Amino acid sequence: MVDKQPLFSQLPAAQQELALQRFQIIQPFLEGRVLLTYIVRTHRLALRTARRWVQRYRADGLAGLVRSIRADRGTRRGMSLEMQQFIQELVQREGEASVASLHRRVLHAATERGWPAPSYSRVYAIVRSLKALPRAEQADLLPRRRGGRVAWRYEGMPRLFPMVGSPLGTLSPT
């Protein structure tokens, strides 16, 4: 879902500069002077990237050489508005329920109603946007400074001390 590409003159200066740089790279190929594989080798690009630039230049001109903005930017993709509203109502009704229990209820409702099952992280993101979560649910891994380096500690589990010399030694609790 990509929005229609704006005109080159309507692009911000940084994007115009990027488009011109990309055009300068593929220009010899477009003029028929060199092969695209030569350009790829000299500029250390992926061949697919160079082909995409050529294809977009031929379709949209210089404006096609910049990344287009998604039409659905800022919205939750992959989840229906109906499911989002259901989750919001559930959060308001249940109040202090944990995200895990809310997720289980959403999964149950999704199978009953024929909706695709949302991941835990999607439900968590909606819940987080609606209310301030308890400290333990805000961040399971909390950084702790120790001797000039950051050591990570998992707040939700009892402390486990890995064996000395194990690859988990860098994750040891403080």
Task: Please specify the SSE layout and strand pairing.
Layout: H1 13-30, H2 36-43, H3 47-60, H4 81-94, H5 99-113, H6 120-130, H7 135-138, E1 141-146, E2 149-154
Antiparallel strand pairs: 1-2
Helix pairs in contact: 1-3, 4-6, 5-6
Tag the structure with descriptive keywords.
7 helices; mainly alpha; 2 strands; two-stranded antiparallel ribbon; 174 residues
Task: Give an account of the 3D structure.
With 174 residues, the protein is mainly alpha-helical. It is built from seven helices and two strands. It has helices spanning 13-30, 36-43, 47-60, 81-94, 99-113, 120-130, 135-138; strands at 141-146, 149-154. A two-stranded antiparallel sheet has the order 1-2. Helix 1 (13-30) packs across helix 3, helix 4 packs across helix 6 and helix 5 (99-113) crosses helix 6 (120-130).
The coarse overall form would be elongated
Order of helices and strands: HHHHHHHEE
User: From the alpha-carbon coordinates, what is the Rg to the nearest angstrom?
Assistant: 25 Å
The tally of helices reads: 7
The structure class reads mainly alpha
Strand content: 5-15%
Instruction: Give the overall pLDDT as a whole number.
Output: 77
Q: Which consecutive residue ranges, at least 5 long each, have pLDDT under 50?
A: 134-141, 154-159
Strand order of the largest sheet: 1-2
Roughly how much helix do the residues carry, as a percent range? 40-55%
| Beta strand count | 2
Major sheet attributes: 2 strands, antiparallel
Note the gap between the termini. 46 Å
